[in-house]
Design brief:
alpha/beta; Aldehyde Dehydrogenase, Chain A, domain 2; 6-stranded mixed β-sheet
Length: 465
Amino acid sequence: MQSLLTTQRQAFLDDGFPSAKTRIDRLDRVKDIHIRYKDKIVEALEADFGSRPRGQSLATDVASIIMEVKETRGKIRQWMKPQRRKTPLMLRLTGGRAELQFQPLGVVGNISPWNFPVELAFSPAIGALAAGNRVMLKPSEATPQCSALIEEMVSSAFDPAEMAVVTGGVEVAQAFSQLPFDHLVFTGGPEIARHVMRAASDNLVPLTLELGGKCPVVVGQSADVKTVADRVISTKTINSGQLCLTPDYIFLPEGKVEAFIEEARKVLASCYDSLVDNPDYTSVINERHWQRLKGYIDDLEERKVRVEVFNPAGESFDDPQKHKLPFIFPVEPDDEALIMQNEIFGPMLSIKTYRSLDKVVEFINDKPRPLALYYFGKDRQEIDALCQRTTSGGVTINDCAQHAACYDLPLAGVGNSGMGGYHGHHGFLQFSHSKAVYHQGLFSLGKFLRPPYTPRKIKIIDSMV
């Protein structure tokens, strides 16, 4: 891995500042391999998950990348242009000029997760390539078929000095995080992120972390419960809730729980008539995570929490080989319940009620900062209160996760949900060094600031105070 990094860095230094044409060509190759390999991508995702809908895989791991490339490639020339900056009056009088130049960092590493293994390998790479960098990818060991395919895709279109893939288990990921990259991206959980930060700190490698968290939904009195259920459940069905932006728990005004559950069941019934062998219902990624989620259910039963279950065909979910679970809705779980302590990452949505929005804000602020917050309603004061008095990576009003579909908005966490961000221009800036450049005019003011400090110089300096 070190030799690969050395090769990429030397190639970067030898080639100098990549032209817009070179960057666009690299992005076009990212797009082309997704088109050429789209069927293999779907097959690899199906093999790794056990069950994953073709439509979802095409949308989230193929089309999303193609759309992001198209959005990015048309803006590169504009983004690359130096930006003029204001120059102090005294310097302007000498003819001085200040600007920002956007310089590629060098080699960007990306440790990507298993939930969207193709999309989250290439999405940060789009920003890195647009900024003129070389890229090394380390896909997740939890999705070995996808990791092998990503390696094949990249090697079919890129010289290893441009972009390369490193595969392997936890030990390889640990070694990867210790490399002296010019920037490192990690997507995953906060616990692993702490190890990545410690490893990166030895080389002072700057990081972008996308870490998820427990994303809340707040439903205002003015919201239509049917619309809320339709949009929240539609998001929860994506990857069976194995999505960093998925709603984790929902706050409903008192008296609206039953109406929400009824509407949620209708939405789910329109999607699934059965679950265990339904190809449109995504499996939990593996048996370990399946057991983890079953542990949440067992904990709820021990606590005697009311749990609403969506299981339309009355099926058994005991087969560890299929690692599927029904959709469940715990109602008013206590804060000590496992499902309220940890990010769920599964087909579960906790329901809580409230009387005062102030208490909701207090509850959210007592928890680690989430990657996203969602509000449903028409009350401008409530919208402002949640946006201004809570802190989250992003917010979507009257839907879920849609801010992440806007490429001109950053995908970014804050606090426990991450740092830095990418997508669109934000990705270009994240993977660039904004270099301050000053062009001196006809003469320099430096001679007025050096000894000896004559009365005339003191007068000039006094005039600045």
